[in-house]
Design goal:
GO terms for molecular function: metal ion binding; nicotinamidase activity. This is Nicotinamidase. InterPro entries: Isochorismatase-like_dom, Isochorismatase-like_sf, Isochorismatase_Nicotinamidase. This protein is of the alpha/beta class. It has a single domain, classed as Isochorismatase-like (Rossmann fold), CATH 3.40.50. It is built from five helices and eight strands; from the N terminus they run βαββββαβαβαβα. The strands form two sheets. Strands 5-2-1-6-7-8 form a six-stranded parallel sheet. The longest helix has 14 residues. The chain binds pyrazine-2-carboxylic acid (VGL) and zinc ion (ZN).
Length: 208
């Protein structure tokens, strides 16, 4: 068992990111057994859920004539436009049913503001609005954050980078993640994470 100063952050393991879902991540379901095994090694586990209102600014349908996976400029910066996904309270927004982490006590729901996206579990995409997660983790005495889930190059990477900015030691567990990989986004994300001093580990490394 990991010591109480370490947390496993399980990012967006939700139906809409699974094969057949609204914003399917290739092989997304394969992270579930790996994460279940990892979670048994952590006292502290925090889950996140992408949790958008119908009118959410990241949905391409609200920006005609733009199409999903195009990028546009918004007041807070560049935004990739996505298919409608993870709408609050829908089956697509639910966590994968085989996720087996009964001892996880906190679920952070993010992306709930209509006009701001939030890939990160710490900071919304305007770079200033906080979710409260950093304070929660500090309050528990956490110093080391292990990230896994979906998708490596969006919500996992942004969460890991913001965890570093918040002063935590950070690792991403490669085989407990899957990527969207849009126009080289996966390589870019790993490069940014490497430059930020984020470790890239396997589940076996973490559980060893
Ligand atoms: C995500 C795109 C849009 C993710 C969420 O979980 O990586 N990606 N919303
Ligand atoms: Zn989203």
């Amino acid at each position: 068992m990991k010591s109480a100063d370490q947390v496993l952050l399980v990012v967006d393991v939700q139906n809409d990111f699974m094969p057949g879902g609204a914003l399917a991540v290739t092989d997304g379901h394969q992270v579930v057994p790996v994460i279940n095994r990892l979670a048994k090694g952590f006292e502290h586990v925090v889950l996140t859920q992408d949790w958008h209102p119908h009118e959410h600014i990241s949905f391409a349908v609200h920006h005609p004539p733009h199409r999903p996976f195009e990028t546009i400029a918004l007041p807070y910066g560049q935004q990739v436009l996505w298919p409608v996904h993870c709408v609050q309270g829908t089956p697509g927004a639910a966590l994968h049913r085989d996720l087996d982490i009964a001892h996880a006590r906190l679920v952070i729901r993010k992306g709930h503001h209509r006009d701001i996206d939030s890939y990160s579990a710490f900071l919304e995409a305007d770079g200033t609005t906080r979710t409260g997660l950093a304070g929660y983790l500090r309050d528990l005495g956490v110093t080391r954050v292990f990230c896994c889930g979906l998708a490596t190059d969006y919500c996992v990477a942004w969460t890991a980078l913001d965890a570093r900015l918040a002063g935590f030691e950070v690792a991403v567990i490669d085989d407990a993640c899957r990527a969207i990989d849009l126009d080289g986004s996966l390589d870019k994300a790993w490069q940014a994470m490497r430059e930020a001093g984020i470790a890239r580990l396997s589940a076996d490394d973490v559980l060893a």
